[in-house]
Design brief:
30 strands; 848 residues; 21% strand; alpha+beta; three-stranded antiparallel β-sheet; single chain
Length: 848
């Protein structure tokens, strides 16, 4: 990938500048000695004559450069040199190299970041922020929208704590009601009771009466003038469902109008979105929010539906599959024959036994399938001495056909979809004349023990545990839905693509028994507000379960109870309450971290037609449960919800294919579908800006209170990646060692200016040359008589005046020796004369 100047950071440019400076620092010390050599002139004999002090300066320039090391000259030799001297001189080169590397690498670690300020800001005013997405403009405005509640199954009944006047009775001919008046209004004292617990929470926590339908309308039930109509025939609000957008492809936390949506794990948090004052770099804070989240468990039945793709268009059925088989992957052969079919007891809020219930349904599904296909026998209930499983006509890998002449009579399998059904054993429909009481002339199975769809329905009833017609509203009768999940097919005949359906390819569909329920809880949510001053600038960075220091600090939940009405007639109210005593309202109460929500899976689909009341907090979660277990081809004709099978969306299909490979992943699929449906069904209306109404402008600002969360405003700061500092840290460590060594020798008296000056003089090349030439007279012999003033000057200046200006000639002699000459030098050799004689001799030899 090409990198342009626009891709460079400040740190990159700083590193490039440092690299250029390092190159210059290396080049100049190498180049200047070469320039110096260029200005020095050698005589015709190869000798060079300059003043003695010039030889010291030239030596300093040449030997202080890198050339001695590169050319391995005398001053870079290690032979015959004490190791201490070698080590210290080598350290100089290594230190210079490390310094150059550090100069280039160190700036690369610099970067600018937007970080939290160290201080929390208290008493910050929050303001409403509008959602500019389709969820914002798809959510209608609402002003003082009242609640409405009507209770009935086959006939109207009086809701708990209602002002209606209805008399009900039952006889052998049916259920009857006499309506004197029917009032849809929810009394204010009921609303107050289920909001009383909010006094012990942060302002951001919602109640059941802060949950509204995202879509609503006003309705009249009956235009018959003789009919007794609710509210004396006045229009009243009802909840509706209209899909706005699907968030299934998103694997993140989302914020939409009125909700925090957890598309990672599943769940919706209720919040009418607001934010602190906008700043250039943003802000962050945390809030407690009421969340309603699904909880699912799945059990692998160890059965698969296997099929192949037709080789020719004329083969197979209309869905594009052929040779459909039910394969025993251990679900028949290894079935626990001692498992009891008695319902699981002691199901409660604290022990919901979700996995056990899903397993029980899977066991019933597998056992009845075996009996249906005569793989084994059931116990004869009329014979006390009989027993089940006296024979087993199966083994791991055995396949049982599920189609008649490759024509599939059930739509539970397809090449490119996931199917979720509340029906156990649905893959056996249409394979005999008894299962669905069909008149088939050529059944695939004889079904000798007369297994019917009603037998399979026991699996769902025992799993969900709630029998709505006879169960009353209490904490242990919480909403649950069960069913079979037919996973996304996976190719089993090769490692070829899992999304290309080649003719003749073989595929396998896993079968899972799943249970799903819903619970309310309080979660701690961390927000970051940055960018635009609307909802697009609000992000959720963390969602965590709230931690409670002790049992007394946990939420206190209340559930509406009724001694007369069953769950089939009404869903109970629930919420946070301050105490068990709420006047004349009868309550069940619990103190615990979360509450499995009461009710039952009604089997009602979300519909754009709408319901008959406006109290979504007691209905939407169970209606969403029902819709999840109706996800099949075409969603059973329900056009109000999108296609979740993956048939029409490759992205959804691939995500489901990855997740449905395990029981845990399949449970997550159920949670995500429930969350997506719920985010389109409801909206939260409680916010920190002080309003409970949806769709207000940003001019609405709260007055801060002691419950308003503290905010950290973000600041721009310079930060550093410490890995880039390693060369600099090494240089720093070496510098510290050298500094300590210098301090040590100074304190020991072995290092001082006088001694350093002595060694500088001892190693001065000019002094050495004049000492060699003039011996002990080198400090006193001069061209003219010395004066007292000159003797009083510094040693270097005195030496320059006395001897340093004398010309000295140096040339290379034989055997790597130097030939040195100077005027009036007692120890000088006849340099020029010897060189001339040497030159003449060479000329003579050449002539010979």
């Amino acid at each position: 990938m090409a990198v342009t100047f626009g891709d460079l950071r400040v740190a990159d440019v700083s590193g490039m500048i440092a690299a250029a400076i390092a190159v210059v620092q290396i080049f100049i010390p190498l180049a200047l000695p070469l320039v110096l050599l260029g200005v020095l002139r050698d005589e015709h004999t190869g000798a060079t004559t300059v003043s003695a002090v010039s030889w010291s300066v030239i030596g300093r320039s040449l030997h202080g450069s890198r050339w001695p090391t590169l050319l391995a000259s005398d001053s870079a030799s290690i032979r015959g040199v004490p190791w201490q001297v070698v080590f210290i001189t080598r350290m100089k080169t290594i230190f210079a190299l490390l310094t150059a590397i550090a100069a280039v690498v160190t700036p690369l670690g610099l970067y600018q970041a937007i970080v939290e300020d160290n201080e929390w800001t208290e008493n910050v005013s929050f303001h409403y922020i509008k959602d500019p997405s389709e969820f914002g403009w798809g959510t209608p405005l609402r002003v003082n929208l009242p609640w409405s509640r009507l209770c009935e199954s086959f006939v109207p009944v009086k809701c708990p704590n209602s002002f209606s006047n209805i008399t009900n009775w039952h006889n052998e001919t049916g259920d009857y009601a006499r309506i004197y008046s029917e009032d849809s209004h929810v009394p204010q004292y009921v609303i107050d009771a289920f909001q009383s617990g909010l006094d012990n929470t942060e302002d951001s926590v919602s109640s059941i009466f802060d949950i509204q339908s995202r879509s609503y309308s006003w309705e009249l039930i009956d235009d018959d003038p003789e009919a007794t109509m609710p509210d004396n025939g006045q229009p009243y609000p009802v909840s509706k469902f209209r899909m706005i957008s699907s968030n299934i492809p998103a694997d993140e936390y989302l914020v939409v109008e009125g909700l925090v949506v957890d598309m990672k794990n599943g769940g919706v948090g209720f919040r009418n979105h607001s934010a602190p004052p906008w700043t250039p770099y943003g802000s962050t804070w945390s809030e407690d929010l009421l969340f309603i989240e699904p909880e699912s468990r799945c059990v692998d039945t160890n059965l698969t539906l296997d099929f192949s793709r037709p080789k020719h268009a004329s083969e197979g059925d209309s869905s594009g599959v052929a040779h459909v088989m039910l394969t025993d992957r251990g679900g028949f052969t290894n079935l626990d024959q001692s498992y009891s079919r008695h319902p699981i007891k002691n199901i409660s809020q604290r022990e919901p036994h979700l996995w056990d219930r899903a397993y029980e349904a899977a066991w019933i599904n597998n056992a009845l399938s075996m009996v249906f296909m005569n793989v084994t026998n059931p116990r004869n209930t009329t014979d006390a001495g009989s027993s089940a499983f006296t024979y087993l006509n199966s083994h791991v890998g055995k396949q049982f056909p599920l189609s008649r002449n490759d024509t599939l009579d059930t739509r539970r399998v397809g090449p490119n979809a996931i199917f979720i059904s509340s029906k156990y054993g649905g893959y056996l429909e249409g394979l005999d004349w008894k299962f669905e009481e069909l008149n088939l002339s050529n059944p695939v199975y004889e079904n000798p023990f007369n297994v019917s769809s009603r037998n399979f329905s026991d699996a769902g009833y025992l799993c969900s545990h709630t029998d709505a017609p006879v169960d009353f509203g209490n904490p242990n009768n919480f909403a649950a839905a069960c069913g079979l999940v037919y996973g996304v097919p996976r190719r089993i005949d090769s490692n070829s693509s899992q999304i290309v359906f080649e003719p003749g390819s073989n595929w396998s569909v896993p079968l899972y028994s799943c249970i799903m329920t819903v619970k309310a809880t309080i979660k701690r949510v961390t927000f970051r507000f940055n960018g635009s001053d609307d909802l697009s600038g609000l992000k959720v960075t963390e969602i965590n379960n709230k931690v409670y220091p002790n049992e007394e600090s946990k939420p206190f939940w209340g559930i509406e109870s009724s001694d007369n009405e069953m769950l089939y007639d009404f869903n109970p109210l629930w919420g946070l309450v301050s105490s068990p005593d709420q006047g004349n309202i009868s309550l069940y109460t619990l103190r615990q971290e979360s509450l499995y929500l009461p009710g039952f899976e009604s089997g009602l689909e979300f519909s754009s037609i709408g319901g008959q009341e406006n109290l979504p907090g007691i209905h939407f979660y169970s209606d969403a449960l029902a819709n999840v277990f109706m996800i099949s081809d075409g969603n059973w004709g329900n056009t109000a919800i999108p296609d979740y099978t993956g048939i029409k969306n490759q992205g959804i299909y691939r995500r489901w294919q990855k997740l449905s490979g395990t029981a845990e992943g399949t449970a997550k699929i159920l949670n995500l579908i429930w969350t997506d449906l719920s985010s389109n069904a409801v909206v939260g209306t409680r916010g920190l800006h002080g309003t409970r109404l949806q769709g207000y402008s940003s001019s609405i600002v709260s007055e801060p209170s002691s419950k308003t969360p503290a905010v950290k405003f973000m600041q721009r700061r310079v930060r550093y990646h410490w890995a880039y500092a390693i060369p600099a840290l090494i240089v720093l460590a070496l510098t510290a060692v050298i500094a300590l060594a210098t301090l040590f020798f100074t304190l020991m008296g072995r290092v001082n200016v006088t001694r350093l000056r002595q060694y500088l003089n001892k190693t001065s090349q000019g002094r050495i040359l004049t000492t060699y030439l003039y011996g002990p007279r080198s400090e006193t012999v001069a061209r003219g008589p010395p004066t007292p003033q000159k003797r009083k000057r510094g040693a270097t200046r005195r030496w320059v005046e006395n001897m340093g200006r004398n010309p000295v000639t140096v040339a290379e002699g034989e055997n790597d020796l130097l030939v040195i000459d100077g005027p009036r030098a007692a120890q000088a050799r006849p340099l020029l004369e010897e060189n001339q004689q040497k030159g003449a001799a060479m000329s003579h030899d050449h002539e010979d």
